[in-house]
TrEMBL record:
Keywords: Activator, Coiled coil, Nucleus, Transcription, Transcription regulation
Subunit-level organization: Component of the Mediator complex.
Name used for this protein in its record: Mediator of RNA polymerase II transcription subunit 7
Record lineage: Eukaryota, Viridiplantae, Streptophyta, Embryophyta, Tracheophyta
Function in brief: Component of the Mediator complex, a coactivator involved in the regulated transcription of nearly all RNA polymerase II-dependent genes. Mediator functions as a bridge to convey information from gene-specific regulatory proteins to the basal RNA polymerase II transcription machinery.
GO molecular function, one term: transcription coregulator activity
Aminoacyl-tRNA synthetase found in the keyword field: no
Family per record: Belongs to the Mediator complex subunit 7 family.
Coiled coil: 137-164
GO terms classed as biological process: regulation of transcription by RNA polymerase II
A Pfam family hit: Med7
Domain of life, source organism: Eukaryota
Organism: Eutrema salsugineum (Saltwater cress)
Cellular compartments per GO CC: core mediator complex; mediator complex
Amino acid sequence: MATATYPPPPPYYRLYKDYSENPSSAPEPPPPIEGTYVCFGGNYTTEDVLPSLEEQGVPQLYPKDSNVDYKKELRSLNRELQLHILELADVLVERPSQYAKRIGEISSIFKNLHHLLNSLRPHQAGATLIHIMELQIQQRKQAVEDIKRRREEAQRLLKDAFVTLDGQ
């Protein structure tokens, strides 16, 4: 029985046989997927929407209005998390049979923290993009200044060379 190291190429490679002579002979790529699709047995969507905590079956521990003070709520949830962890330590010592309730509360706090942080991701991505673009602008300005400086230096050297040649 013979075995191959690599599987054979997919049959559609034949569609590209004349590509080197005529690049327009290749078929157009498929259109981007829109909506929902299945990948490796999981359903996914192309819409980038953060599901609410209620949709995930988690109680929301911070106000539901759109004007949430993220800094205040994150600090509040962090303090609450610290308190619950200390209470968990106490429960594990005093009443070990009640630890599951405390673990559930801690899990809920963690999920709320993650949800708040994930709702800040679009803002973070925009700020990161702005920072990267500002760095690129700065680098390009610096490159232009470097080119101007080198051009002036080359002009000076050429001028000095012509003066030296004229003087001889």
